[in-house]
Design goal:
By secondary structure, this protein is an alpha/beta fold. The protein has helices at about 10-20, 40, 75-85, 180-190, 215-225, 230-250, 255-270, 270-280, 295-300, 355-360, 395-415, 425-435, 465-475, and strands at about 5, 25-30, 95, 100-105, 110-120, 125-130, 130-135, 155-160, 170-175, 195-200, 205, 290, 305, 310-315, 320, 330-335, 350, 380, 420, 480-485. The protein folds into 2 domains: about 1-140 and about 340-485, FAD/NAD(P)-binding domain (3-Layer(bba) Sandwich), CATH 3.50.50.60; about 150-205 and about 250-335, FAD/NAD(P)-binding domain (3-Layer(bba) Sandwich). Helix 1 (about 10-20) links the parallel strand 1 and strand 2 (about 25-30). The chain binds NADP nicotinamide-adenine-dinucleotide phosphate.
């Protein structure tokens, strides 16, 4: 069976490793970037790191003893992923510089046809009996369509496409957005630039992050003491489940966590004006809780201004805010996140009867366990709808998805079928259960990138990591039908 995997980030690599482990050797990973890595290839802004501890933000079967610190910086994570891909022999299956434009299910041949174009614009075609879409939720930078944006005469770029060729030193810089990316790079650039204006639309809840290098003794213990790494992983797992519990129970645990975060923030926000502006106006956990002990102090730097007046447009000299001010700057950095609800949709994906995924998702993205979609045989999503986590490691979810899709394809192989497809009623029941599970949680108490135009949270898994693991551990054959095709 030929399997085509789109994307060679953590998701694509996880799928490839699992498939190879079960004897699926004909794998092709198509990667648009010039190297594997996904988000860790693209996000290279100063201070880029993961705010999930590395001993848990890593594959369970590829544990590293020597992470340099609790939450590793981007180069270390990228190097880890490259190393794992090589160790498990899946790096050889990666074709880089290949941007997939369309995937089409051919009902007669019972196979997927995938079109891509390379960096030179040349078109390429692949065929496979199964398709894994591992393009992630956070890969297409979103830049707000501000009136007059094109007329801005200074320099600008998005945080996920950092322009390292542009020297920020002594420049007047605007940062639009205060999400997880901005909080990592603002403290890094604040002392370098002559003036920094941070535009915040919504305040955030913060918890402290102490991220100095692991002391040598701790690293030595983690390397040498049998079982210690496993214990440490279990501790991290439980701590993250606790964060999810706070989000799931905003009236009780959430209040307590909010009080802890508030106390930390009050200690950090000495300037009453900045404190007033930066304070969140929604319950703890509704948006992503940010882990940083350096961002709030940076906001109070001498050369830093926090602006909360909404940006109404761009003038040639810089952002214009609703209070009529023009903020003259040399450079605008958009830390405005990603087109999350599009998932892989810029690609044209058509399934049975020529029906496109766009049509199937006209009323919002949805999938059975975030992995399979009725009408799209032997197509599997990694990090699909409702599998993002606010209190966990996405790698944990990706491994569960890889195991699940592998079970599905093993069924195809064992039964000598042509393809496997989730039943519409199984998908509908699962989607309904997931939607209901959001009731009463903090996730529905404010606007966020997790939610679609109808207000539904289509990004997050509404429960605990352990629940997702349990739901995906064993594929229920009753949820699927095998297609016989012309190979029956
Ligand atoms: P983000 O969390 O979506 O934040 C975007 C920021 O831009 C928000 O502050 C948003 O304000 C603001 N914004 C968006 N459009 C705007 C507009 N038109 N005018 C003014 N402000 C605007 O994006 P991100 O910081 O790149 O992070 C995205 C996700 O990537 C995170 O949630 C996280 O899952 C992941 N990430 C993870 C890490 C990590 O360490 N694990 C690090 C970075 C990113 P509102 O809040 O009002 O929408």
């Amino acid at each position: 069976m030929k399997v085509i995997i789109v994307g060679a980030g953590f998701g694509g690599i996880a799928a490839a490793i699992e498939l190879r482990r079960h004897g699926f050797d004909e794998l092709t990973l198509l990667e648009a970037a010039p190297e594997p890595g996904g988000t860790w290839h693209y996000n290279r802004y100063p201070g880029a790191a993961c705010d999930v501890p590395s001993h848990f933000y890593s594959y369970s079967y590829a544990q590293r003893p020597d992470w340099s610190r609790l939450c590793s910086p981007q180069p270390e994570i990228l190097e880890y992923l490259r190393g794992v891909a090589a160790e498990f022999g899946v790096d050889r299956s990666v074709v880089t510089g290949m941007e997939v434009t369309s995937c089409h299910w051919d009902e007669d041949a019972c196979r997927w046809t995938v079109h891509a174009r390379d960096a030179a614009g040349e078109r390429h075609t692949w065929h496979g009996e199964a398709l894994v879409l591992a393009t992630g939720q956070l890969n297409q930078p979103a830049v707000p369509a501000l009136p007059g944006r094109a007329a801005f005469e200074g320099h600008s770029f998005h945080s996920a496409r950092w322009d390292h060729g542009y020297d920020l030193r002594d420049k007047r810089v605007a940062v639009v957005g205060t999400g997880a990316s901005a909080v990592q790079f603002v403290p890094e650039i604040a002392s370098r630039v002559s003036r920094l204006t941070v535009f915040q639309r919504t305040g955030n809840w913060f918890l402290p992050l102490s991220n100095g290098p692991y002391p040598r003794t701790v690293r030595a213990l983690l390397r040498r003491v049998p079982g210690l790494r496993a214990v440490w992983r279990a501790v991290l797992f439980s701590a993250m489940e606790l964060l999810t519990a706070a989000i799931r129970h905003p009236g009780t645990l959430g209040r307590f966590a909010g009080a802890l975060a508030g106390a930390f923030m009050r200690r950090q926000l000495r300037d009453p004006e900045v404190r007033r502006k930066a304070w969140p106006t929604y319950p703890f956990g509704c948006k992503r809780v940010l882990f940083s002990s350096t961002f709030l102090p940076a906001l109070q730097g001498e050369n830093v201004e926090l602006v909360t007046a909404p940006i109404t447009g761009m003038s040639p000299r810089g952002p214009v805010t609703a209070d009529g001010r023009t903020h003259e700057v040399d450079c605008v950095i958009y830390a405005t996140g990603f087109r999350t609800n599009d998932f892989m949709l810029p690609m044209e994906i058509t399934g049975t009867g020529g029906r496109s995924l766009r049509e199937a998702w006209a009323r919002g993205p949805r999938a059975h366990l975030g992995i399979t979609v009725p009408g799209f045989p032997s197509m599997f999503l990694m990090y699909g709808p409702n599998t993002n986590t606010s209190g966990g490691s996405i790698i944990f979810f990706l491994q569960a998805q890889a195991r699940y899709l592998c079970q599905a394809l093993r069924r195809v192989r064992t039964h000598r079928a042509a393809a496997i497809e989730v039943r519409a009623e199984a998908e509908a029941a699962d989607v309904l259960a997931v939607r209901r599970r959001f009731d009463g949680t903090a996730w529905l108490r404010c606007d966020s990138w997790y939610r679609d135009a109808a207000g539904r949270n289509v990004a997050n898994w509404p429960g605990y990591m352990r629940e997702y693991a349990a739901r995906t551990r064993t594929l229920d054959p009753a949820d699927f039908r095998l297609l016989r095709g012309n190979r029956g």
